[in-house]
Amino acid sequence: MKLLRFRVYDFRSVKDSGWIECDDVTTLVGVNEAGKSNLLLALWKLKPAKGGEIDLLADLPRKRYSELRDKKEKPIFIETEFELSQNLILKIVKITGAEYEDVRIASISRDFNGTYYIGFPYAKGISSINSQDVRSILENALTSIEPLEEAGKTEQGIKEEACYRISKALESIGDKEKLLAKDITTVIDCLNLSSKPMKSSHIRPIILEAQKEIGNFKSLLEKPNPSSFQEARDIVLEELPSFVYYSNYGNLDSEIYLPHVIENLKRTDLTGSVEAKVRTLRVLFEFVGLDPQEILDLGKEPEPKKDIHGNILQEPTQEEINRAAQAKTERDVLLQSASASLTASFKDWWKQGNYRFDFHADGKHFRIWVSDDIRPEKVELEGRSTGLQWFLSFYLIFLVESREAHKGAILLLDEAGLSLHPLAQKDLAKFFENLSKTNQIIHTTHSPFLVDTGHVDRVKVVYIDDEGYTVASNDLRSAEGKSQTRSVYAIHAALGLSISDTLLQGCRPIIVEGPSDQYYLSAIKNFLISERLIAPKEELVFVPSGGVRGVEGIASILAGKADDLPFVILDSDKPGQDFKNKLQQRLYKDSPDKIIEIRDVLGLENSEVEDLIPFNMIKLGISRLFRQVETEEFEDVYISTQPILPQIEDFAKKHGITLEVGWKVDLARLAKQRLQLQRTKIVDEKTRILWQELFNKLV
Hints:
Elements: E1 2-11, E2 14-16, E3 20-21, E4 25-29, H1 36-44, H2 56-59, H3 65-68, E5 76-83, H4 86-96, E6 105-111, E7 116-119, E8 129-130, H5 131-145, H6 158-173, E9 178-179, H7 181-190, H8 204-221, H9 230-239, E10 243-246, E11 255-257, H10 258-266, H11 272-287, H12 292-298, E12 305-306, E13 312-314, H13 318-347, E14 355-362, E15 365-372, E16 379-380, H14 386-401, E17 410-413, H15 422-435, E18 441-445, E19 459-464, E20 470-473, H16 482-504, E21 508-512, H17 515-530, E22 540-544, H18 551-562, E23 567-570, H19 574-585, E24 595-597, H20 598-602, H21 615-625, H22 634-637, H23 644-654, H24 663-678, H25 685-698
Parallel strand pairs: 4-18, 4-19, 10-17, 17-18, 21-22, 21-23, 23-24
Antiparallel strand pairs: 1-2, 1-3, 1-5, 5-6, 6-7, 8-9, 11-15, 12-13, 14-15, 15-16, 19-20
Helix pairs in contact: 4-9, 5-6, 5-8, 6-7, 7-8, 10-12, 11-14, 14-15, 17-24, 21-24
């Protein structure tokens, strides 16, 4: 199961967070006290791996505590949507008889009483049937009956009655476009013949077949929603992954007293920082294959024999001394082997220096020493940077526990890596990416260096609204509200750093109008590279300009530093065409071929970047936009030879739906995720060629 999005209600500082879309790695960015931790805590309490009990005094909003504490029915505080695994979907299909797509996504919520609510939000069911489908069955039956003869005197009059009843059924439909269950029942009743059945009749089977076909429509309308099946709800809850919340990461000490370690590893009553350190020690010894009891035993000195008063009766024999020396040698070999193992493994992740770890044991004491190429002398771990201590502890915990205790769990990391150097924070972001192959990660930060600008669609901004509540948003633009602008600043800083890195590393920036264009084109680029259809020598980075008006300013800055005008991709709507003319007359007068208009690629007037995308890749997002529309599907009225955005806007207007600000960005993000998951299944050959031709111009 993969978490697609979650929403928090009435939990601590959160009134309604809004939907927070999730990916393999999701970053919640905001200033201190914005409420980022409260979002993680609410999600953790959906199904905590350990701890995480609901505490009304701590978790209910203070403003509503007196109102809610004694209510028998408590409000829902966390709502989630998960994409189910294929095996689980097939099980539910078997139980419910639902269509595969109807149960691909499950909603799971929990209230303050601890009660779970499970459903399938996209299994709308069928509320009506196209009248033309029923009308066609009746008209075909009538056409089939007209040339037939009645089977003898006993069937006399059946043909006339059959034609009459079909006519009555057609009359009951009238000019209705859609038929409800009651309309279908009326049609079926109209077809009931009064005469007795005849085995040799050719007319009666036609009427019965028509009743059967129309009855199938009735069965579809009366089909129960899969959410009503308790067994289906139970297996979804059983498969729900647990959530692991971390805010205390337990840095290792350089000197460890082995008897205390052995004792603490057996205890279950530890809390706070002591528990965190013990957890880190456990995974350290496990990771390097050491047993602290064995290390302690191998280091014991041979003891003389004494009487009951403590007087020495006999010194250790030479054999005992030799045996103890051999045990110490074995301990040294074990420690050297473990040191080499940790050094080699850690080197793959920590890029801030070539560090070597050395484990030493002296009696009951176990020590960790560190050296590197710049400082070859060995220094105890606590004498090195806090960042190195933190990353080593973090690395051990998650590399070991994500494989074992937290296998398949979703990791919630609160303010991870704040003590790290900016470059080390970038390494941590890469560590997240690799760790997410086994565990989804949601982490909070206010550092721009932990924002992955290569996947800016994974970043959400968290801020305090005008009423003092925590809100999360996908809109990464600066807003009028001071709180949101401050929270977004870290993301803008990260994007600025990304552009600087792009120029310094010789990458190729390409200017696009907005973030939705950035998502689509980045997804296409990754697809083409993975399919080996393009092989760019430079990294292609799409830089959103905030609309056509920002293109010229950004192009001037980038051209000034790189001594080369960047490519610009513009929509072919009126603003795009007008601005293209201005650019060709001014900044791009000597490089008009570096302005690519979507119309030139598609040959479609008024086309935009969205029109480069196959409908199958974008239709899930459109379905979410119009999920409350039951009378008509957008797919049924979509015209593939016309630009899609005006059609979406017209469909929304027709059904009285107000499209939220940033809806195009949400659409792009979902399309990118769909392409990553299904790839070749939703990209036909014509689209591949089109995409390849566009990117060949850029490469």
